Amino acid sequence: MKNTAGKFILKNFVKMVLLIFAVSIAAFALMTVSPVDPLQANVGQAALGSMSQEQIAKLEEYWGVGEPPVQRYLAWLKDFLKGDMGVSLLYRQDVAKVIAVKLGNSLFLMIIAWVLSGLIGFALGALAGMNRGKFVDKAVKGYCLLISSTPAFWIAMLLLIIFGVWLKILPIGLSVPIGVEASGVTFLDRVYHAILPAVTLSITGIANIAMHTREKMVDICESDYVVFARARGESLWQIFRNHGFRNVLAPAMTLQFASISEIFGGSVLVEQVFSYPGLGQAAVSAGLGSDMPLLMAITIISALFVFGGNLIANILYGVIDPRIRRGGAAK
Amino acid sequence: MEKNTILEIRNMNISFSQYQKGTKQTKLPVIRDLSLTVHQGEMVAVVGSSGSGKSLLAHGVMGILPYNAEMGGQILYCGEPLREKRICALRGKEIVMVPQSTSYLDPLMKVGTQICKGKKDPERKKKLDGIFRRYGLAEEVQEQYPFELSGGMTRRVMISTAMIEEPKLVIADEPTPGLHLKAAKRAMEHFRELADMGAGVLIITHDLELALETADRVLVFYAGYTLEDAKTEDFRQEKTLRHPYTKALWRAMPQNGFHYIDGVQPYVKDMPEGCPFAPRCEKCTEKCRGEIPYREVNGGYVRCVYDS
């Protein structure tokens, strides 16, 4: 038993290292072929024109222009392996520090959205699946299809217009009130500012989770064991409690942890709309500004999150499903 | 002498609606005309080959047909019509079904909890312990999941789901496939016991030999029709049987010569006019193309124009 656990950990650790390695190469390769000229993007055409040749050469060195990509990558990798993620070219701060701040903001947002979309999505999906073809099902399905075919950033703008501009009950952006010292920002201020972006992320997240949960639930309701449960006189509620919930839980859990990647991706756009200073916004500015160390670090952290999510789902599957838990132990 | 009739099915028919070539909907009649009665303390076997739609009979009575199925005819339970509302109230209590395969057990629910439908009162637990002792199942089995059971154990667990109630009518859908002869016989004996305890038992099976060993009456089902309703004793010799198909079945049994007849059961979509067995019947004449009555002969029933 101990041996298998050790093997499991080792196997996944190797997988993780390989994944990060592959992701870093891909991200770096994409950055090198990107047509964005870091000097033009960050200094500007006008300013460049008025600079001397030496000044431009200095800037080029700072942004790494002209250096062979392989050499640049290897230098980055060497530092990264030592635990040094480098200095952000845009923020002129340690990447680790920048990420710590941004991630803190984003995590707050993403956890709210993740929990909300998971719980509400599961409930709606289960409800629709159990009542297939009835009004509830049609309503939930309609909602999901509508939302799935609507871009997240558009919903963000819509909510912004309604609640921020017309009704003026929620802030139009940022994560803290304007003109307040950092020490004067309360937790409630943060929650207040996170409501709109979190709700936007949830609205889109719910559709995905509800739709998948519904599909699973419909399958379960058509299964032989639910037919038999009906033949044994179990009510709809009993069927849900005894069979539906139990059987939909494992796939729903996988879905929930796999959806981390979607919340991550969605947050990039949503943070942009709400000028929310999170990881997503940092990724956009790092990409557009050719801030190689920062973008590499953000990419790797995102990959780690997604990998971690899937890993947790895998482990939980074994905990929930007796066929894996007991069956595996027997062998 | 007439014992109480528990279940009476009159002219049951079940059809599926199916989409063909896009939007054209066709009806697929799987059961065309099925009549039977089950009395108190009696074990009746419905025998038919695979794919003849026997399982639908059980699902039809229990009210658990899929949404695209339609059922006609009349079902009487204890003399009164068994409509949707009544079966919903009675199933799982007075009327129980014993399903066909392991897939009818929830893979994620422990066997004991599952038999008790998630209820945990000590009375049920005591009853369950009793049933398990009777069927020779160890108490640990209650804590196991369906995937950990052997075929024979699964069978006994599924019969236990019926025993935990107070059934007046037990419908068993193919209770023996996948079991070796000894286990299959034991399973049939368990149903016999249920009948001897006063319940009406309806067994749906393709195993004629096993049915003859334990049942009181045997109904022969072919291509959607009940062709014959005979007492088990009638099967002792060929001449007491009524329908040519039943006789062919009798002759096909190893101890009676192992003879077989050509052809297969017709598919639902290309059914012959009149008698469904006509294309394979040696006695077939023009008369067999018309309406065939289901009539009483020598205390049984037969759907044939000829007297045997």
From TrEMBL, chain A:
Mode of membrane association: Multi-pass membrane protein
One Pfam short name: BPD_transp_1_N
Subcellular location: Cell membrane
UniProt cross-references to CDD domains, sorted A to Z: TM_PBP2
Domain ABC transmembrane type-1, chain residue ranges per copy: 103-313
InterPro entries the record matches: BPD_transp_1_N, MetI-like, MetI-like_sf
Entry keyword set: Cell membrane, Membrane, Transmembrane, Transmembrane helix, Transport
Coiled coil segments of this chain: none
Keyword Membrane: yes
Segments crossing the lipid bilayer: 12-33, 107-130, 142-167, 191-210, 248-274, 294-317
Family that this chain belongs to: Belongs to the binding-protein-dependent transport system permease family.
PANTHER family, per the entry: INNER MEMBRANE ABC TRANSPORTER, OLIGOPEPTIDE TRANSPORT SYSTEM PERMEASE PROTEIN APPB
Protein name: Peptide/nickel transport system permease protein
UniProtKB/TrEMBL annotation, chain B:
Reaction catalyzed: Ni(2+)(out) + ATP + H2O = Ni(2+)(in) + ADP + phosphate + H(+)
CDD domains xref list: ABC_NikE_OppD_transporters
Enzyme class of the recorded protein, top EC level: translocase
Example of a GO MF term: ATP binding
Positions of the ABC transporter domain: 9-248
Domain of life of the organism encoding this protein: Bacteria
Pfam annotation, one family: oligo_HPY
Membrane topology designation: Peripheral membrane protein
EC number(s) stated in the UniProt entry for this protein: 7.2.2.11
Keyword Nucleotide-binding: yes
Subcellular location per the Swiss-Prot or TrEMBL entry: Cell membrane
SMART domains in UniProt: AAA
Key words of the record: ATP-binding, Cell membrane, Ion transport, Membrane, Nickel, Nickel transport, Nucleotide-binding, Translocase, Transport
Listed PANTHER family: NICKEL ABC TRANSPORTER, ATP-BINDING PROTEIN (PTHR43297:SF13), OLIGOPEPTIDE TRANSPORT ATP-BINDING PROTEIN APPD (PTHR43297)
Homology family: Belongs to the ABC transporter superfamily.
Subunit structure: The complex is composed of two ATP-binding proteins (NikD and NikE), two transmembrane proteins (NikB and NikC) and a solute-binding protein (NikA).
Protein name, as recorded: Nickel import system ATP-binding protein NikD
Species: Blautia caecimuris
Lineage of origin: Bacteria, Bacillati, Bacillota, Clostridia, Lachnospirales
